Amino acid sequence: MTANLSLRLTEIFHSLQGEARSVGRPTVFIRLTGCPLRCTYCDTAYAFEVCQQFTLDSILEQVADYGAQYVCVTGGEPLAQGNVRELMRRLCDAGYQVSLETSGAMDIDDIDPRVSVVLDLKTPASGECDRNRLANLPLLKPLDQVKFVICDRGDYEWSRSIVETQDLASKVDDILFSPSYEQLAPSQLAQWVLDDRLKVRMQLQLHKQIWGEETGR
Ligand code: SF4
Asked: pTM (2 decimals)?
């Protein structure tokens, strides 16, 4: 019986996807409350506590109101709340293209295979590198994406090493390298990627190009 399952949410909003494979697509974002990590560059600390409890039925109704095809489940850390797996299953059943943004610290087992997991492996400068759960890597499927937020040269070299030693290109179609916002010049990261002939996709956060650090975007 799943009728009364609920989740703590910080916000539901409609915007353009700012990152990853569906960048630029109108998307409904479901931001879950809470995160066990404290990354140095976190831009969603307001999601640690600000929350309201919603049933899954209510969340699905709110999502439907926007008429979008894409839904992104994000946080905070969505997988910190167990009922999120059922929410994602129901979103997929309803016909949405669903992505999940999760840190590398949580177990990604038992997620509906229709969901594209965007796994954010934490680099050394995040301060949370030791939390990465490398046991997740064999669970990745081609539909998934692995993301690295890169703050400096040390982060870049660490990320390059993980890509190579874990053979990530054989596991997922998209490996994403993002310069940490206002910490690393995009042109610098671009040059490193080109110099090393890395088979990764560099990305900038589209929503920050358009709206800066405004929340709910
Ligand atoms: S995992 Fe995400 S939400 Fe949690 S502290 Fe790090 S950047 Fe912030």
From this structure: 0.94
